[in-house]
């Protein structure tokens, strides 16, 4: 759009001239320019300069033919040199007249609104000019089509001066259609130049129409108009020697639309909705930038073809010098110098072609194409259309590639490749990888070259469903096929074996993989090279005892087209003692690999051949510990480090997962394939130490109850032993009462761990004693030794309690982080009150013969019972001995409060007789007495 | 003339792609099919914009390129069909009819007990059927 002259890009502004009184011009100009709509001024200091704007008498147009459609400078002339109104300014002393009218003049001057009067007058002028030409048009007296177009254009411009957009649009369209009809009929100019002129004029008219439509907010109409413009001119390629001009022109049409859309998009975006005929993409500039780039590429290829065909490319430059744009839009002429003046001489088509070629050589199309694609890419990215954006990136990268900017190209190709990998578009990925491989070859990056080559060789392209593509469009890599994969495979393995070098552009040295420059590739869980080498490791057991052997299956899978022979496999674990190496038995020379340390385990496998899509399975026994990294070594200078994967959690191979083929498993045992893990849990060894808790009888409330603990080391020595003691309420709820407000007050404490006795030095051994928790250290015990102590626990309330004791020790050393072995013991201990008395009334219907044993001391036994009046009630008094000592019950008194009501006092006397009746032995059992209350 | 048809799976991966051109533009057609997935995504994610195509398998014209028109179709199992044609004046009914026949061919192909869902379609019968459907495109709308 910047190529268009300023007067075409902006709407015309009315022009007025000021003559005389130059000191006022600045004020007036500023004022008029700030009017709405603004007015431009042409200031002439005095009347002597008036001839500047005088009209040169025009010769009537050539009766037969006009020389062009319209003149290049006509629009500029009317915007800057031909005023619509001339205002002459005089100072009052220059004015003389009838003094009677003087007052009237002053009043008129006061009422004069300068802006309005100028606007009115210039409007009138432009309207009259427009009308004048319109009349000519309507009279149909115009001799040529050119004039008719010119008149339409002029009417439209005058309408624009008046801001009459509707009329302007109508006449621009008229001019455009008339011009289109000219294509077949005009013979004024030689064929090539004729078409160039028509297209140039059409471009200007089209641009005007497009701008007017877009500024009027008619986006749908503008785009429809554009399509129509595109359709009517797209086919007019013209002569083959200048067809590049056509593509350049077409590209510019798209670019201009894209730029106009970008300018207006801020205001229109919200209102545009896809219509039936236009999709949403046709409203986005991205689409048009992309097409502009496309046609510019077309232009470049045509231009290069034309250039290569023109025999005398060198003399193109010489002849073209004096050719310049002529006075008519879209025409070119030779400038002839005649003394001080220049004259224009028409040129032949041959001359014009030479001129166009010389002009074309001045431009670097590739950078223009990249810039267009970049705009398109950014716009698509804003739309979150990542695939379209990627396609633009791809085209950009190809452009960079073609101008030998391999670094830029590689960056872009890399980002596209990841999208195609993700979505499994193998043919597209192949093409991109082909470019990447070529870029890294030229840049001399061996590692990248090997990686891209390996990935290409392992792509699923031999499978049915992928068409063979022609080599023309495939870029540096030949079309994807199995044979091509095999060639790449062979090439890359020759390179990594050091048999061949990589010819790169860097100082013309071929890069080799040698002992000095070994090559190391890493394949992790997300690497695209998983298709090249997939390593899976499965322990046959999920939990093993330390020192006990378990089996480990290593499985490898490769999708490379040829069999790969591995020299050596190094398996590394997170516990390096377990590391071992597998060497290929068929390669005796490589068995003496230097980096094998003494004591390192080396296994020899009969063959380490990796065939295409066939698991190589190796099973070895291994003692203890978890796996970490698995390292695979191949070739003297080429290593691949592969992260081991668990078969159970292994992802499908990217790309290959979409292929229709038989599933294979990394291990022979399918169960292991589904559940196998690359890590195993190593248990702690079995304890060989006895822990005994000796308990005699129940504990009694109030006494300090001692529990002896004995540790006897039978098979292990005890290093840094530790006893943990825990008291837990068997019914849950803790050992403190629920209303525990002060946690350490003994009032609320039911059971308490008081301490430990029987220790040699209490200060050293007891590390912590709390109410329900204790920690005691155990001294070193040799095998066969034993050690004991007593726990002292006090019950405050009768309660059963669980006692947990655990011994932790390390069997071998006393280092703090040495492996620990734990022994656990637990015991339930009942806490009881020594002697308990309780009483209960017997309900009336359960008298006499009823069995005593059925009667339990109810929780409400202390409560006041209501007894039937005038009947005998039975009171049961129970005494219970929980101790181990027999107790003799000597006597028992039952008293009744004297304050009570009379009826109960009667009972009192009756009861007294019982006092001496019963005295017997309470031998850790309960005795029951029944009392009857006589009336 | 139809120049390319494609079946695209759930991860936007090609399950079947076949071009029917003599010219060297098969790879370009792959690019076009891949780009059209952006439009399918947009239509599926913003059903409001597409208006009448809501709840319909036929997605209509996805996007125009200079020389091609791309149409889309989304099956009830969210598998996408893409059609690229060089005819710039195509009747909607023809395209719908094409997709209907293509869909039934697809259903037959994936109903094969030996076909694993989500894998590429390698059936030769399917390929033949598709090429017949492509050949008869636009000849009659009753098909």
TrEMBL record, chain A:
A Pfam family found in this protein is Foie-gras_1
The organism's place on the tree of life at top rank: Eukaryota
User: InterPro entries from the xrefs?
Assistant: TPC11
Q: Report domain Trafficking protein particle complex subunit positions.
A: 194-458
Write the protein's name.
Answer: Trafficking protein particle complex subunit 11 domain-containing protein
What organism, scientifically named, is this protein from?
A: Camellia sinensis
Automatic annotation (TrEMBL), chain B:
Q: Write the record's keywords in alphabetical order, separated by commas.
A: Endoplasmic reticulum, ER-Golgi transport, Golgi apparatus, Transport
Per the record, the major location class is endoplasmic reticulum
What Pfam families does UniProt report for this protein, alphabetically? Sedlin_N
Any one GO biological process: endoplasmic reticulum to Golgi vesicle-mediated transport
**Per the record's keyword annotation, is Endoplasmic reticulum included, yes or no?**
yes
Extract the InterPro entries matched here: Longin-like_dom_sf, Sedlin, TRAPPC, TRAPPC2L
Q: Which GO terms describe its cellular component?
A: endoplasmic reticulum; Golgi apparatus; TRAPP complex
Say which domain of life the source belongs to: Eukaryota
Q: Where in the cell is it found?
A: Endoplasmic reticulum; Golgi apparatus, cis-Golgi network; Golgi apparatus
- CDD domains the record matches: TRAPPC2L (cd14854)
Q: How does it assemble?
A: Part of the multisubunit transport protein particle (TRAPP) complex.
The family line of this record is: Belongs to the TRAPP small subunits family. Sedlin subfamily.
**Which named protein is this?**
Trafficking protein particle complex subunit
- The organism is Camellia sinensis
């Amino acid at each position: 759009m910047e190529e268009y002259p300023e007067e075409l890009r902006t709407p015309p502004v009315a022009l007025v001239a000021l003559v005389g009184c130059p000191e006022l011009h600045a004020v007036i100009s500023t004022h008029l320019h700030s009017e709405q709509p603004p007015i431009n001024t042409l200031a002439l200091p005095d009347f002597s300069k008036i001839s500047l704007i005088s009209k040169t008498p025009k010769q009537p147009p050539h009766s037969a033919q006009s020389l062009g459609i319209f003149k290049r400078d006509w629009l500029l002339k009317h915007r800057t040199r031909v005023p619509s109104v001339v205002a002459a300014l005089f100072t009052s002393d220059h004015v003389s007249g009838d003094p009677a009218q003087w007052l009237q003049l002053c009043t008129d001057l006061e009422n004069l609104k300068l802006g309005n009067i100028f606007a009115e007058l210039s409007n009138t002028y432009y309207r009259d000019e427009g009308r004048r030409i319109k009349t000519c048009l309507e009279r149909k007296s115009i001799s040529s089509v050119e004039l008719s177009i010119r008149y339409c254009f002029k009417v439209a411009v005058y309408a624009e001066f008046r801001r009459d957009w509707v009329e302007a649009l109508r006449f621009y369209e008229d001019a455009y259609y008339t011009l289109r009809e000219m294509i077949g009929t005009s013979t004024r100019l030689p064929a090539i130049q004729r078409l160039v002129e028509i297209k140039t004029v059409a471009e200007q008219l089209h641009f005007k129409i497009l701008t007017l439509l877009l500024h009027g907010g008619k986006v749908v109409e503008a785009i429809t108009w554009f399509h129509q413009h595109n359709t009517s001119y797209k086919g007019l390629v013209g002569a083959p020697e200048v067809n590049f001009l056509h593509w350049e022109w077409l590209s510019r049409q798209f670019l201009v639309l894209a730029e106009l859309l970008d300018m207006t998009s801020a205001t229109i975006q919200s209102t545009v909705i896809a219509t039936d005929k236009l999709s949403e993409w046709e409203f986005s500039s991205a689409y048009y930038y992309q097409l502009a780039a496309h046609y510019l590429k077309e232009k470049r290829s045509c231009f290069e073809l034309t250039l290569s065909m023109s025999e005398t490319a060198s003399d193109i430059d010489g002849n073209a010098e004096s050719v310049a744009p002529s006075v008519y839009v879209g025409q070119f002429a030779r400038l002839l110098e005649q003394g001080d003046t220049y004259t224009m001489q028409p040129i032949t088509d041959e001359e014009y072609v030479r001129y166009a070629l010389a002009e074309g050589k001045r431009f670097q199309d590739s950078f223009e194409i990249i810039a267009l694609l970049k705009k398109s890419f950014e716009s698509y990215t804003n739309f979150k259309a990542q695939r379209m954006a990627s396609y633009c990136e791809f085209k950009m990268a190809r452009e960079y590639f073609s101008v030998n900017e391999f670094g830029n190209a590689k960056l872009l190709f890399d980002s596209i490749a990841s999208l195609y990998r993700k979505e499994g578009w193998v043919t597209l990925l192949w093409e991109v990888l082909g470019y990447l491989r070529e870029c890294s070859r030229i840049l001399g990056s061996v590692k990248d070259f090997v990686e891209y080559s390996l990935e290409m060789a392992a792509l699923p392209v031999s499978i049915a469903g992928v068409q063979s593509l022609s080599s023309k469009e495939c870029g540096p890599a030949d079309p994807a096929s199995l044979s091509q994969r095999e060639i790449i495979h062979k090439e890359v393995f020759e390179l990594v074996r050091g048999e061949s070098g990589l010819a790169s552009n860097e100082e013309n040295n071929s890069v080799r993989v040698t002992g000095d420059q070994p090559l190391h590739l890493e394949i992790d869980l997300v690497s695209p090279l998983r298709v090249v080498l997939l390593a899976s490791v499965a322990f046959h057991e999920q939990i093993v005892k330390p020192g006990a052997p378990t089996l480990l299956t290593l499985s490898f899978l490769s999708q490379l087209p040829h069999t790969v022979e591995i020299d050596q496999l190094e398996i590394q674990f997170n516990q390096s003692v377990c590391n071992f190496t597998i060497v290929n038995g068929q390669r005796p020379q490589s068995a003496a690999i230097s980096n094998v340390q003494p004591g390192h385990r080396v296994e020899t496998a009969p063959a380490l051949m990796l065939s295409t899509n066939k698991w190589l399975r190796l099973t070895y026994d291994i003692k203890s510990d978890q796996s970490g990294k698995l390292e695979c070594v191949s070739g003297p200078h080429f290593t691949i480090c592969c992260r081991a994967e668990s078969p159970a959690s292994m992802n499908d191979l990217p790309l290959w997962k979409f292929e229709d083929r038989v599933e294979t498993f990394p291990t022979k045992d399918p169960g292991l394939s589904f559940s196998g893990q690359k890590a195993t849990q190593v248990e702690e060894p079995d304890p060989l130490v006895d822990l005994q808790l000796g308990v005699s009888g129940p504990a009694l409330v109030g006494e300090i109850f001692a529990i002896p603990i004995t540790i006897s080391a039978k098979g292990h020595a005890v290093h840094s032993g530790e006893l943990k003691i825990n008291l837990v309420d068997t019914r849950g709820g803790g050992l403190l009462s629920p209303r525990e407000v002060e946690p350490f007050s003994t009032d609320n404490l039911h059971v308490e761990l008081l301490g430990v006795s029987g220790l040699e030095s209490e200060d050293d051994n007891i590390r912590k004693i709390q109410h329900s928790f204790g920690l005691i250290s155990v001294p070193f015990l040799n095998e066969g030794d034993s050690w004991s102590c007593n726990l002292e626990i006090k019950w405050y309330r009768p309660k059963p309690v669980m006692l947990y004791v655990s011994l932790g020790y390390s069997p071998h050393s006393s280092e703090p982080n040495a492996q620990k072995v734990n022994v656990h013991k637990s015991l339930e201990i009942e806490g009881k009150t020594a002697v308990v008395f309780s009483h209960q009334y017997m309900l009336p219907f359960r008298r006499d013969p009823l069995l005593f044993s059925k009667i339990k001391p109810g929780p409400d036994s202390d409560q006041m019972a209501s007894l039937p009046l005038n009947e005998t009630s039975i009171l049961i008094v129970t005494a219970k001995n929980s101790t181990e000592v027999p107790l003799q019950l000597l006597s028992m008194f039952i008293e009744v409060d004297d304050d009570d009501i009379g009826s109960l006092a009667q009972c009192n006397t009756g009861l007294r007789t019982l006092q001496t009746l019963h005295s017997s032995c309470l031998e850790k059992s309960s005795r029951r007495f029944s009392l009857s209350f006589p009336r | 003339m139809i120049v390319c048809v494609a079946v695209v799976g759930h991860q936007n991966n090609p399950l079947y792609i076949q071009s029917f051109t003599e010219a060297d533009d098969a790879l370009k057609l792959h690019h076009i099919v891949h780009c059209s997935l952006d439009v399918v995504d947009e239509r599926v994610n913003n059903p409001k914009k597409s208006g009448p195509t809501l709840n319909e398998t036929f997605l209509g014209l996805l996007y125009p390129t200079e020389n091609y028109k791309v149409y889309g179709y989304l099956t009830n199992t969210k598998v996408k069909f893409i059609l690229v044609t060089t005819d710039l004046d195509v009747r909607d009914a023809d395209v719908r009819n094409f997709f209907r026949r293509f869909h039934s061919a697809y259903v037959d192909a994936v109903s094969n007990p030996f076909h694993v869902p989500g894998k590429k379609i390698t059936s030769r019968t399917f390929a033949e059927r598709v090429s017949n459907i492509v050949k008869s495109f636009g000849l009659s709308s009753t098909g």
